[in-house]
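Encode chain A's predicted structure.
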Amino acid sequence: MREKVGQRPRGTLKIDHFVADTAVRGENDHENGQAPGNTQLLGKYTLKRQAGQSLVGNKSDKVVFHYSLAWHPDEKDGLTKDEMLRAADGSIKALGAEGHQAAIIAHNDTKHPHLHVVINRVNPEHGKMLDLWKYQERLSKWALGYEQERGMIYCEQREANWQRRDLGETFSADKDAAYHKHDQAKGLGHANDNDTRKIMADQKAKDSALSQAGEAMHTRHSQEWKDLSKWYGEGKPKIAGRTAGDAPTPFQKARADIKEQYRPVWREHYAKQRAETQAFEKRETRLLGKLENAVAAVRMSKELAAADKGHAQASLFNFLTSSKTRADALERLHAAQTRKLGGRQSAEVGAAISKIKTAQQTAYKSHRERFNAKREALKADQATDKQEMRQKWQERHQERSRILDVVRRMKTLKAERKASQETTRGKEREEFKAATKPKRRRKGRVRKRKVDE
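Encoded structure for chain A:
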């Protein structure tokens, strides 16, 4: 269903020979032998007086309103006269013209069935003019409902337009104008207006929004790298056991633990050595005891010589003749025992530290591997973000170029139209001046008469 509207001032629609059928609305006038539009014979002012209406108001000489209804060619076979009249009555009702005189003329000269509706805008009862405010939208809304009622939408653009209107968008559908002008307007996405300043402001706003999104992306990327670096840096002290405060490191703790384990061993070791020293000193007070100490010194000297190749073994004679030599042998033996015990403790500390170092190296390696994995994933994610941003900028440039091309064409068309109007006005002005300029009356030659002196 397509509706086409128009007005014809002071007159009725011309009907050619191809009229198939005609119907008249406004039976009272028809019965009296008056055709639609004959309320003008009585006069709208007379009708207003009879109806008690005010005579003031805007005046209009467009007293006849005409529009046409057309069906799709596919509907031709199943379309009846009653259905066409029903559609015409529905459209008249949509305009609020039920009480007005109307002529409905059906044509069969085209592939698509259609009819014309001619309405007398002057109401035959009170003489008021039919209000045609937003008649395009009213007819469009009725046509959409008519197609929905019949179960087939032939004009999809009209349905899309009303979906936009239902969402609160305000715009006007294309008027009867050249098709290339409609195409240029559609290039702007059916904008509500063609104000180039608003269009440019919208483009700048889109560029600004995309630029801000890019800056936010770069800021986020920088912060992600800082966070990753911080995570890696904080992980190494945790692995090494270095924490804030005076807490001992794993190495210090291992040394302290082994030292605590050896504390009773050292206590027993020194107690044994004190007891041996006291027994040595007690034996030194007796002659037989000195002999025992000398034999013990020889034995100790052999043990020291076996443990230390650089130690010189003293003779029994030296130990028998010198008390100092016997005491030195005992001291050297005690010192050797102390070194041996300290070496054993140091060996255990070294083993514990080596074990800790091995565990830390394994943890460092795992931490580094996790860091590398996170770094590669972050590089891939950020590369995807940058690619998407580049794609958005490419689309933004293409859209801006299209819009700017349309704006430039609009400016060119506007300038051409303005120049054409100026040229037309200039020609009309010149023609008017030429038509209204008074003709100069030709002056005849004046002969001067000689005056007799």
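Strands lie at 2-8, 19-25, 64-70, 102-107, 114-120.
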